[in-house]
Amino acid sequence: MREQLERIRLQAANELQGVEGTEALQDWRVRYLGKKGELTQILRGMGAVPAEERPAMGALVNEVRAAIEFMLEEKSRQLKEKEKQARLASEAIDITLPGQVALVGSKHPLTLVIDEIKQIFLGMGYEIAEGPEVETDYYNFEALNLPQDHPARDMQDSFYITPDILLRTHTSPVQIRAMERIRPQLPVKVICPGRVFRRDDDATHSPMFHQVEGLVVDKNITFGDLRGTLLTFARQMFGPEREIRLRPSFFPFTEPSAEVDISCGCGGSGCRVCKGTGWLEILGSGMVHPNVLKYGGYNPSEVTGFAFGMGVERIAMLKYGIDDMRLLYENDMRFLSQF
Amino acid sequence: MRVSLEWLGEYVNPGMEAADLGEKLTRSGIAVENILRRDARLDQVVVGHIDVIEKHPEADRLWVCSVNTGDRQYTVVTGAQNVRQGHKVPVALPGAKLPKGVEIGEAAFRGIKSSGMLCSAEELALEEKTISPEDREGILILDKDAQVGQPIAQALGLDVPILELELTPNRADCLAVINVAREVSAITGQPLQLPDVKVVEKGEGRTEEQVKVTIEDSDLCGRYAARLFTNLRPGPSPLWMQRRLQAAGMRPINNIVDITNYVMLEMNHPLHAFDYHTVKDGHIVVRRARTGEKLVTLDGQERELNSENLVIADPEKAIALAGVMGGLETEITEKTTTILLEAAHFYPASVRRTARQVGLRSEASQRFEKGVNINTVKLAMDRAAELVAQLGVADVVPGYVDNYLRPTEPVKVPFRASRINALLGTTIKPEQMEDIFQRLQFPVQWEAATEGEQRDAGIVVAPTYRPDIQGEHDLAEEVARLYGYDRIPTTLPQGKTTVGQRTWPQTVREKIIDALVGSGFREVVTFSFINPRHLDRLAIPAEDHLRQVIPVQNPLSEEQGILRPTIIPGLLELAARNASRRIPDLAIFELGGTFLPKALPLKELPDEAWKVSALVMGAAPVHWSGKPQPYDFYFLKGIVEKLLSALKIKGVTWSRETELSYLHPGRAARLQITQDGMVFDLGYMGEVHPDVREAYDLAARPVVMELDLSALTLLARAKGDYRPLHRFPSTDRDMAMVLPVAVPAGQVEAVIAEVGGNLLERWRLFDVYQGNQISAGFRSLAYTLRYQAPDRTLTDEEVNHAHESIKTALMERLGAQFR
Ligand SMILES: [Zn+2]
């Protein structure tokens, strides 16, 4: 009987070698451990074993059973692992095929630039002021120190609706509207983005374009504050290594006035963008003219202020390297999809 | 404005190179746009003398010249027909490379070797406007005094650098060379030497006896002065004067005209010369033109005038348009012997109006428009008289007339050094300011300082050639620009801390843009004005309120004809443009203003209603595994619903929109909300009408929407209502019903919502079917309904009861059939 048990153990181990797949393993299990299996047969034959040998024989039977069960467990684990590997292999896909098409939208580059400018000035405590695109002569010219027949009105050829109503030629009228709204409170700290209109249409001019205007009015505002504010802006917008340069200029609504150049990305070595000068003209600015403060409802002997204005198209073109302004208004999807 | 350094050098020596001077001027407020050099590539061109000229033995039209250039003799063959023996001409030597790229070598012309080339004005790149018409033809014949062998640039005065100034309107004074010299002196500190005018008069009689000036309209003419020149000896002006005029971009004409132009450039005073004998009684009347009065101007055109125009007249008729252009009848001719020279001051506004009206913007009118100095009118006249005598052009009759009716005093500008420093953020000492004012030749008087204090208050007398200096802030700019803008400190506003934040409307706009961009839409920017023909393309009926549009009075073209009453046509035009570029699939939007008048013609500003408008066309990009998602009505409706949900706007009713001419009447909807008994119109969406599609040449079927931003802003909420999550399980039940097609799903859902009441958590349409097994004119709608209560688990009975009630209501009210 002892030999018989040893034979079963060996035979089970040998047969197990050839078992592939869970079904075959099941058959094998039934053959050795099932109710009609070989081990059960042997147990049934225990009656023929002398009583004194039975305990030892029982222990041996259990040992063999444990060994076969261990084999079963081990084999079963191996088979499952193998099957899993096979399943994973069969599930492989071509990962180079294109992904599901997500709907991708985009903001217009002009909006992106205006957003960026807004963000910088919101961070500096400015609010965003707005005004109408159709304006009165009063807000567009007169209150900005540009009376009738002022030669500087020639600088801006306007689209008229009536002799007294026109499409605004700059965002500056919003300065007056903002002061009227906020007075007599201080400070006034606003930026005014928006569309403006001039009678020009060629490669470098569009009859409609965008400006962002800024205005600060408070006690003790200085020309130095203007310079510092614009330097902060230029560095946030274009990079921390940038410098600015102020040149005397003229705007009817500011005095002193300055054109503001920002150092070119080429680092001053001169390139196509800056036409070799190392500087880019991006802003007009100055200290708010006393007459304009008066029109806005503030007393110029008590408060001072500064104002600045920039063309959004120019900044967008500089920032993205767009060489033709008209692209901004053609709205070709191949153009817009790049932003 | 062009100023040659040679001319400038007569009054001030800048002591530096042109480029450095240009930079310095620019940095202190007179922008030098360019430094013009006219002598590039002329180094191999010299003055040659034609010793001998003979016909080419083999060619009719060619000449063989023996040319002497001082140290050498050249044989040059030329095809020009205007060269004669003894002429002096520009000779390009072999090896020269001329301005327009022509390289000069040696070549044989029918057997005769030619070395070098005789040059025309064009070959030397002379500016056409600065040379006479005869000099533009053939070889340029030089002055007989030209020095043989001299480089041509020297001989023609082309070797002087010219500053091209870009003047701002406040610095019209720099239209005078002497005022540019003042500026150069101020910024360099170099001494200034202005002309010391001395008139040499000659002959019998006095001007006052022969000339009378009456200013009738002194509101348009503040000063009028005149002198007489007799025994006119016409001829060319001296070369030095011609060279200066040419450097300034003007063409020399003759001695008297050149003198008036010279003084105009030197002092910024336009002068005008009349033939004295054509002015009746020698009597000048300055008056408004009579309505319908006619005048033939120097250019031969007859002009009809009105009372807006100021004219110079004699007792009978107008003889010139004041400050704009002279009359033909009183023009200087070969017969002229006596000249009446006018030096006057006309007010800018009147000159501008007249120049605009007659479409003439002469050099003189532009200067009057920008303002000339009324106090130097006589000085300019005397300067011209001085030159007339000096150059022997005519005899200056003793005496003069000068009617100065409205004397202008220099402006006294009080200031405080401390306030200037406060404005600039600087600590410039009063002495430094005084030094700056002195360099500018602004007289300054200080108030005595109190013991132990610095001087602070003072008065600057602003010269009348600087009318831009009106107040302390103007002085601050003068101080700042001469002190140096670069030396202004860099600070930030101190004051109270402010928080920058967006207003609610601005926030709503950002949410909308984010929602649309997040849904695959591309933002576009189109113009606020449109071509009026869009209204026809949109088939808007004549009496429709959308025809009440605001016209632009002076558009550049029809493209800016009207202010847009809606953004839709702009989007349709873009759709067409992209489609024509083979981009047929689009999802675009624009946020912007539309313009509706309160009344026409406009009396007050129009309503600027901001809209969010979108257009979809074609289909979403197709994935290889699936079917295209069409950009149709339901796609855009989904986007609108997403937008409303992003803004937390609930309770929108969708009703059929049939009024708008440009939408498909069966595929358009209007969105409204009723709140507190008020109806808010949110806008509309729908498929574009087939006729309109055709008008825009669109093959696909675009769907558009236009929502009103102010309504959205009003109804939008920053946060939705929070409701605690249900803890008890829910039960889902489906129902499928058959209904006439004419019953909208909206009605079905209204019944479901009403009858379902509190127990109904939500419902969802999952199938719409029409076709086999359903009678024609009917369709099947299938919904999943979820039942749930906040406080308990619903029993089957409760759910069954609720579900059946809904079914019953649908059967009774809408005729729904359940199977
Ligand atoms: Zn550069």
Automatic annotation (TrEMBL), chain A:
CDD domains: PheRS_alpha_core. InterPro entries: aa-tRNA-synth_II, aa-tRNA-synth_II/BPL/LPL, Phe-tRNA-synth_IIc_asu, Phe-tRNA_ligase_II_N, Phe_tRNA_ligase_alpha1_bac, Phenylalanyl-tRNA_Synthase, tRNA-bd_arm. Keywords: Aminoacyl-tRNA synthetase, ATP-binding, Coiled coil, Cytoplasm, Ligase, Magnesium, Metal-binding, Nucleotide-binding, Protein biosynthesis. SUPFAM superfamilies: Class II aaRS and biotin synthetases (SSF55681), tRNA-binding arm (SSF46589). One of its GO terms (cellular component) is cytoplasm. Residues 117-318 form the Aminoacyl-transfer RNA synthetases class-II family profile domain. It holds the Pfam family tRNA-synt_2d. PROSITE patterns: AA_TRNA_LIGASE_II. It comes from the Bacteria. GO terms for biological process: phenylalanyl-tRNA aminoacylation. GO terms for molecular function: ATP binding; catalytic activity, acting on a protein; magnesium ion binding; phenylalanine-tRNA ligase activity; transferase activity; tRNA binding. Residues 65-92 form a coiled coil. Its cofactor is Mg(2+). Mg(2+) binds at E255. Its main location: cytoplasm. Signal peptide: none annotated. Tetramer of two alpha and two beta subunits. Belongs to the class-II aminoacyl-tRNA synthetase family. Phe-tRNA synthetase alpha subunit type 1 subfamily. This is Phenylalanine--tRNA ligase alpha subunit.
Automatic annotation (TrEMBL), chain B:
Residues 408-490 form the B5 domain. It is found in: Cytoplasm. It catalyses: tRNA(Phe) + L-phenylalanine + ATP = L-phenylalanyl-tRNA(Phe) + AMP + diphosphate + H(+). SUPFAM superfamilies: Anticodon-binding domain of PheRS (SSF54991), Class II aaRS and biotin synthetases (SSF55681), Nucleic acid-binding proteins (SSF50249), PheT/TilS domain (SSF56037), Putative DNA-binding domain (SSF46955). One of its GO terms (molecular function) is catalytic activity, acting on a protein. The keyword Transmembrane helix does not apply. Its EC number is 6.1.1.20. It is an enzyme of class 6 (ligase). Keywords: Aminoacyl-tRNA synthetase, ATP-binding, Cytoplasm, Ligase, Magnesium, Metal-binding, Nucleotide-binding, Protein biosynthesis, RNA-binding, tRNA-binding. Its cofactor is Mg(2+). InterPro entries: aa-tRNA-synth_II/BPL/LPL (IPR045864), B3/B4_tRNA-bd (IPR005146), DNA-bd_dom_put_sf (IPR009061), Fdx_antiC-bd (IPR005121), Fdx_antiC-bd_sf (IPR036690), NA-bd_OB-fold (IPR012340), Phe-tRNA-ligase_IIc_bsu (IPR045060), Phe-tRNA-ligase_IIc_bsu_bact (IPR004532). GO terms for biological process: phenylalanyl-tRNA aminoacylation. It comes from the Bacteria. The keyword Protein biosynthesis applies. Residues 39-153 form the TRNA-binding domain. GO terms for cellular component: phenylalanine-tRNA ligase complex. Gene3D superfamilies: 3.30.56.10, Bira Bifunctional Protein, Domain 2, Ferrodoxin-fold anticodon-binding domain, Nucleic acid-binding proteins, Phenylalanyl-trna Synthetase, Chain B, domain 3. Tetramer of two alpha and two beta subunits. Belongs to the phenylalanyl-tRNA synthetase beta subunit family. Type 1 subfamily. This is Phenylalanine--tRNA ligase beta subunit. The lineage of its organism: Bacteria, Bacillati, Bacillota, Clostridia, Eubacteriales.
